[in-house]
Design brief:
Largest sheet: 2 strands, antiparallel
Shape: elongated
Order of helices and strands: HHHHHHEHHHEHH
Oligomer: single chain
Strand order of the largest sheet: 1-2
Helix content: over 70%
Radius of gyration: 39 Å
């Protein structure tokens, strides 16, 4: 397109018989007088959004048919091709983001499997009786080992927290199964702990609201009885 404009506008620059004023000839020379100038002008037309400034003078002062050329160029190149290129880049970006999300999911699954494996090792070391059930005495003995303490530190857990959890999960029997042990430990880890705290606070608020409502009803009944 740039070379085409450069060629067809040459007579408008050099042919003095054409009804084109000198200022317009100089303008054409400045923007379309050579191949490099025409290419740069078309580049600005394509990406700057100011194409009317480069097209209107040619349409109004040189020939009206240039309107057809610029209309086709803007429609095909500026709007169609650039939008297609933008859509392709956007598609690639979304695909990369989707791949990153899947990678994060796989990474979290791998981490969970890693922690579960380590908890299985702890449970196996703790279950000295080999009956598949873990007693608090067995657990207290194994948590004294440095390796076990390092495992719990990697899980961002304190030993005292785990002992308290054991007391909550054993149901008063003094023993806990492997699945209950692992699920309870993992619930204490990371964001799950914060979410459980928020859930507990919400439940406490609901209970408190019910207590206040019940208190008001009792007061009303007491007032009615006195009357």
């Amino acid at each position: 397109s740039a070379l085409f404009l450069c060629q067809v506008l040459q007579p408008s620059i050099v042919d003095v018989s054409l009804d084109i004023d000198q200022d317009m000839r100089e303008w054409i020379l400045q923007y379309y007088g050579s191949a490099s100038r025409a290419i740069w002008t078309l580049f600005e037309i394509t990406f700057s959004g100011g194409w009317p400034s480069y097209a209107r003078p040619l349409v109004e002062k040189v020939h009206g048919l240039y309107a057809l050329f610029f209309a086709m160029y803007v429609w095909v190149v500026v709007f169609a091709i650039t939008r297609i290129i933008t859509a392709l880049f956007l598609k690639d970006t979304l695909q990369v983001a989707n791949d990153d999300a899947e990678l994060m999911i796989r990474d979290q699954q791998a981490r969970k499997a890693q922690w579960t494996k380590k908890l299985h090792e702890i449970f196996t070391m703790s279950d000295s009786s080999g009956d598949g059930m873990l007693s608090l005495e067995e657990f207290k003995q194994v948590v004294q080992k440095p390796k076990v303490r390092i495992y719990f530190q990697m899980l961002d857990l304190q030993i005292q927290e785990v002992v308290e959890l054991f007391g909550m999960l054993d149901g008063g029997s003094g023993q806990i199964a492997y699945d209950d042990f692992c699920s309870g430990i993992l619930r204490l880890k990371g964001q799950a702990r914060a979410m459980d705290v928020i859930s507990t606070m919400r439940d406490c608020r609901a209970i408190l609201d019910k207590v206040h409502s019940l208190e008001k009803r009792i007061d009303l009944l007491g007032g009615a009885a006195c009357a």
